[in-house]
Design a protein that fits this description.
heterodimer, A: alpha/beta, 5-stranded parallel beta sheet, globular, B: alpha+beta, 5-stranded mixed beta sheet, 7 helices, about 15% strand
Chain lengths: ~240, ~300
C-alpha cells in the first residue's frame, strides 16, 4: 500500500453508527467515507475508489447483499466486510456466494472492526477474487470443497465433525492471520460460550489429529500461547 | 374430518329415497306385520344401544382430536410469535448498541474514566443479553449436530471446572459432588450436539452454584432408566418460592431470590430450549429454604430425537 491512510467506505443507514465509526476509524489511521444505502455506496465506490467497504446488510433502497452481488457481477473485487452473522449455515453459504471477504456481527467492538479491516487489507490481492470467495481451497495435501463440505487429506476423505469443518474453513480462508479463540468462537458457534476456550481447543485438537499435525512443529495450525491460533500453510483457490 | 362421517349418509339417503318411493306409490307398498319374540327383541335393542354408544365414542374422539389439533396450532403459533419477537428485538437492539459502542470507543482516554468504564460495562452487559436472546431464537431453528455424546464426560469436565473455581472464588465452601453410574454398565451416550448439551448442563450447575451459600451442598448425579439418561443437579441452596416455580423457565424471568445475583434470566430458558430440541424434558422441584433439584431427561442414542 502506497497510501499511508487507506480509504474505507462505511455503509449503514443509521447515521449514529456511521458518524461514530467514521470518527473511530479516523483515529485508527484510516480515511473514511460514508454512505446511507447501497445505491449511494455503489456511486461512491465508482467515484472515490476506496480500498475497502464495510457493508451493513439491512438498508433501504439497495440492501447490502444486493449491493455486494452487483459489485461482484460487475467484476469488482474490492474487499468487503459484511456486517452480518456468519454462524448460520444458510447465511454463510449466502455470504460465500456473494463473495464477502469477512463478516462481523452487530453489535461489535470497534477495535475488532479495525483488526478485521487491517487483516483483510493485508490479505487483499488487488483486482482478484479473495480466497474467501473460492469454492475450492487447497493447502498442500489438503483439499476443501466448500460446496459439498468435504475435506480430503492426501487423497483420503476426512471424517470430521461439522464444527471442525467450519473451523477449518475459517482457518483456510484466513491464512497467516492471528485468530483469537474469541473470534473463532464467534465464527463457528455464532455466540460466546461458557467454556469457550475449551470448545475451540477441542476442535483444533480434532483437526490436528486428522491432519497429523504436531503442535510442537506445526505444518498447518500454529498455537500462539495466550493469543490464539494461526493457519501457517499457504492456501490457494483450487481448481 | 368431515369425510369420515360421509359413509353415514349412504344408508340414510338410501332409506329416505326408498321411503319416498314407497309412499308415492312408485313401488308397491304392502303393509308388513312383523312378529318377534322377546329374545330377538332384546338382542336387537342391545345391538342398537351398542351402535349408539359406539357412535357417541367416535364422536367424542373426533371432538377431542379437533380440540387437540386446535391447541397444538395455538401453541405453534405462540412459539412462532415468540421467535419472531425475539428476532425483531435482537434486530432493534443491535443498531443502537453498535452506535453506543462506537461512540464509547471515541471517548476512550477522556478524564472521567470511572464513569466511562461503568457505561462500557453496562453496554457490554446489554450486548451479551442481545447475544443470548439471539442464541435462544437460533436454537429453535438451527440444525442440530447429531453425534454420540458422553454425558458422563461433560459432567466430569464441568464438575472439575466448578471445583477449581469453587476453591478460588465466591463459591468457596460449597461441597460439589458428582455421581455417575459404572454398574451394571457405564452411562450410555446420547445422540446430540456436544456444545449445546455442554452449555445446558453448564447453565444448570452454574445456577446451582450461583444461589448456593458457603456450607451448601451441590450434588450432580446421572443415571439411566432404559430409554433416557437423566441428569439431576440438586442443591441445598435458598430454594424457590412455590408461586415462582412455574415462571423459572420463562425468558428473562428472575425470581425474588435472584436479585443481586448476576445473570440475564435466560439460563434456564436456554436449558429448556436445548433439551427439548434433543427430544428430552427438563423439570424442576424446589422448596423455599431447603433447596432445588433440576432434572434433565435425554433420550439414549438410538431412540431417535425429533
Amino acid at each position: 500500500m502506497t497510501d499511508p491512510r487507506p480509504k474505507i467506505l462505511l455503509v449503514d443507514d443509521e447515521p449514529d453508527i456511521t458518524t461514530n465509526l467514521a470518527a473511530f476509524l479516523g483515529r485508527s489511521g484510516f480515511t473514511t467515507l460514508t454512505a446511507p444505502d447501497g445505491e449511494q455506496a455503489l456511486q461512491k465506490i465508482e467515484a472515490e475508489a476506496p480500498e475497502l467497504v464495510v457493508l451493513d446488510v439491512l438498508m433501504p433502497r439497495l440492501d447490502g447483499r444486493e449491493t455486494l452481488r452487483r459489485l461482484r457481477q460487475s467484476g469488482n473485487w474490492i474487499p468487503v466486510i459484511l456486517l452480518t452473522q456468519v454462524g448460520e449455515a444458510f447465511e454463510r453459504a449466502m455470504a460465500l456466494e456473494e463473495g464477502a471477504d469477512d463478516y462481523l456481527n452487530k453489535p461489535f467492538d470497534p477495535h475488532e472492526l479495525v483488526a478485521r479491516i487491517k487483516a483483510v487489507l493485508r490479505r487483499a490481492r488487488p483486482g482478484q477474487p479473495p480466497i474467501s470467495a473460492a469454492w475450492k481451497l487447497a493447502s498442500g495435501p489438503l483439499r476443501f470443497d466448500r460446496r459439498s463440505r468435504r475435506v480430503h487429506f492426501q487423497d483420503k476423505e476426512l471424517n470430521l465433525t461439522p464444527k471442525a469443518v467450519l473451523l477449518l474453513e475459517y482457518l483456510l480462508t484466513h491464512p497467516d492471520e492471528l485468530l483469537t479463540r474469541e473470534r473463532l468462537l464467534d465464527v463457528v458457534w455464532g455466540w460466546d460460550y461458557p467454556v469457550g476456550t475449551r470448545a475451540v481447543d477441542t476442535r483444533v485438537a480434532e483437526l490436528r489429529r486428522a491432519l497429523n499435525d504436531d503442535p510442537a512443529t506445526p505444518q498447518f495450525i500454529e498455537t500462539l500461547p495466550g493469543q490464539g491460533y494461526r493457519y501457517v500453510a499457504p492456501v490457494e483457490a483450487g481448481a | 374430518m368431515i369425510r369420515r362421517w360421509l359413509p353415514v349418509l349412504i344408508p340414510l339417503a338410501l332409506g329416505l329415497g326408498l321411503g319416498i318411493a314407497f309412499a308415492l306409490g312408485w313401488l308397491p307398498n304392502p303393509t308388513l306385520y312383523l312378529r318377534a319374540d322377546l329374545a330377538a327383541l332384546a338382542q336387537i335393542l342391545g345391538l342398537l344401544a351398542a351402535l349408539a354408544i359406539w357412535g357417541w365414542a367416535v364422536y367424542r374422539d373426533w371432538l377431542q382430536s379437533l380440540l387437540q389439533e386446535n391447541r397444538q396450532q395455538q401453541e405453534n403459533k405462540a412459539a412462532e410469535d415468540r421467535r419472531r419477537f425475539l428476532q425483531r428485538l435482537d434486530h432493534e437492539l443491535k443498531n443502537p448498541l453498535t452506535a453506543i459502542q462506537a461512540g464509547l470507543a471515541n471517548l476512550g482516554g477522556t478524564p472521567d474514566a470511572p464513569a466511562l468504564e461503568s457505561v462500557q460495562a453496562q453496554t457490554n452487559r446489554l450486548s451479551r443479553l442481545v447475544a443470548d436472546l439471539r442464541k435462544l431464537a437460533d436454537l429453535e431453528t438451527r440444525p442440530l449436530e447429531h453425534s454420540p455424546v458422553s454425558i458422563a464426560e461433560i459432567l466430569e469436565t464441568l464438575v472439575d471446572l466448578a471445583q477449581d473455581r469453587a476453591a478460588a472464588s465466591r463459591s468457596a465452601g460449597i461441597n460439589i459432588s458428582l455421581s455417575v453410574p459404572q454398574a451394571p454398565w457405564p452411562l450410555p451416550e446420547v445422540s446430540g450436539d456436544y456444545d449445546l448439551l455442554l452449555l445446558a448442563l453448564h447453565n444448570l450447575l452454574d445456577n446451582a452454584l450461583k444461589f448456593a451459600r458457603p456450607g451448601d451442598t451441590v450434588e450432580v448425579r446421572a443415571f439411566e432408566d432404559g430409554t433416557s439418561v437423566v441428569v439431576e443437579v440438586a442443591d441445598t441452596g435458598q430454594g424457590i418460592e412455590a408461586e415462582e416455580i412455574a415462571h423459572v423457565w420463562q425468558e428473562l424471568y428472575r425470581g425474588r431470590g435472584a436479585r443481586g445475583v448476576p445473570g440475564s434470566g435466560l439460563g434456564l430458558a436456554l436449558v429448556r430450549a436445548i433439551v427439548e430440541r434433543h427430544g428430552g424434558q427438563a423439570t424442576l422441584r424446589s422448596r423455599a429454604g431447603q433447596g432445588t433439584v433440576v432434572g434433565v431427561r435425554l433420550p439414549i442414542s438410538g431412540e431417535a430425537p425429533v
